[in-house]
Every structure is written in structure tokens, then in C-alpha cells.
Amino acid sequence: MLTRGIGVGLPFVCGALLFTGGKGDRSSQSVSIRVVSSISVCGAAALTILPWEYWLLKETNEFHLLRTCGAAPSIVDGLGYNRARPDRAKLSVPKLDVAPEVQELMVDVDTKAAAGQLASASDLFHWGIEKLKSSHGALIRLLLLKVGRSWYATDTHRREGVLLLIQLPLICLAIGGLVLSRSEKSGNLKWQLSVVLIFYFWGMTVIALSIVRYMVPVMPFVIMHGAAGVTRAASMWRSRKSSAVPSRLA
């Protein structure tokens, strides 16, 4: 959390899950125990960042949560991802083939950001509302692109096809595993935590620069759900096969 701002919401998400989740595991625990557990997680996170926040406030007389530049630059960077970045010039970044109206939207983001018109979350919110009304669906298409690219895209746009070939089977297996195990495991706190973490990092990656490296922390959970799905499917197949044998003998 101290090294990457993407983790700023994790303590609150985990704290909420400790209070509300795990019906099968926590049914015997009182509300007060769940409240204490949730507060402990959030409090530990606050104590972790408190020394840095105190130092920053003392040195600059300003308060910033984890980073001094705020969230707006990361969101702008993610919205205008189809550009040749100056810091990646030596890597020969290829531009992607996107719809003209989507590319125009990205250029508009960069132009307004360079002019200082998208310096805050409020500026971005008002820009987003304006584009939802005037861009004829271009903003929605851009966001859908970011939803998908979160799983395979790179900062330099290179080797993305290879990454997609690797990631797509894992994602399909994980979806199958989640569907097959939902009725059996959905009340399990560990199962819920793994799912919440996947969707948390996915959402934060969509909001910021949508590249696969931000999904790396939760890829073990994706692989685990995929493996659980394969195991569950094999068990179901063996069960049906064994139940079909007596009927054929009869």
C-alpha cells in the first residue's frame, strides 16, 4: 500500500468483508467481534501509513493520501493510453487500431490534461459526464476496452497477443471454477476474499492504466479458481460415469 496507491482501498474492502462476509464461517461470532475485527484491519493500515503522512504534513503543510500527485494523473494516463509516451520512446511503442471516435477521445484527454483542465477528480468527473452526453458512446467503448485490456495489455503495447493467448484460457477456467463452486463455497470467507480481491484489483486497473502488471497480485487466485474448476468438473464427470455403470449392467 505504501509503494502503490492501488492498495489504498484494500483495508476498507477487507474490513467490510470481515464484518459482512463468511456466513458459514462467522455465523457463531457476535456482531461486536466482527466490528472489532474490521476496525483492527483498518486501524493497522492507518498506523502503517501514519508516519509518512505525518512527515509529509510537517514538511509541506499539506495532506495527501499516499501520493502527492493525487488520482487524476493516473486516470488521465489510463484514458489516453494509445499514445507514444516520451518515457518509452526507445521501446518503439506501436499505436493500436481503435475506432476514430475513441482515438479522438484519447487525444481530447491528453490535450485538456496538458492545458491543466483535468487536474482533479472533480474535473475528470465533469469531463466524463460531458463526454457521456456528447461522444455518442465513445467513452463507453473506451471503458470497455480498458476492462478487457486489464488482463493482457502492456505499457509498451508489445507482445499483447501472446499475453492474451496465455491469459484467456486461465480466465475461462477461473470463470468455470467460480460458477461450479459458487453454491458450495460462496459462504466461505476465504473464497469470498479471493473473489473480492480479484474484482478490486480489476476495478482499480480499469480506473488507472489498464495493463496486466497491475493484475499480477491476484493472478494466483485466478489460477487457483481455474484449478478448482477443473477438479470439480472432473469429480462431477467421474460421479456421473460411475452412476451410469450400474444402470447399464441392469
Task: Give the low-confidence spans.
Answer: none
Q: Number of helical runs?
A: 10
Number of domains: 2
Question: Beta fraction of the residues?
Answer: under 5%
- Topology pattern, helix = H, strand = E: HHHHHHHHHH
Structural class: mainly alpha
Instruction: Please describe the biggest sheet, giving its number of strands, its sense, and whether it closes into a barrel.
Output: none
Structural write-up:
There is one protein chain. The protein has 250 residues and is mainly α. The chain folds into two domains: 1-68, no CATH class; 73-249, no CATH class. The chain is built from ten helices and no strands. Helix 1 runs antiparallel to helix 3 (31-60), helix 4 (72-79) runs antiparallel to helix 5 and helix 7 (138-149) crosses helix 9. The longest helix is centred in the C-terminal third of the chain and has 31 residues, at 219-249. The radius of gyration is 23 Å and the shape is flat. The termini are far apart.
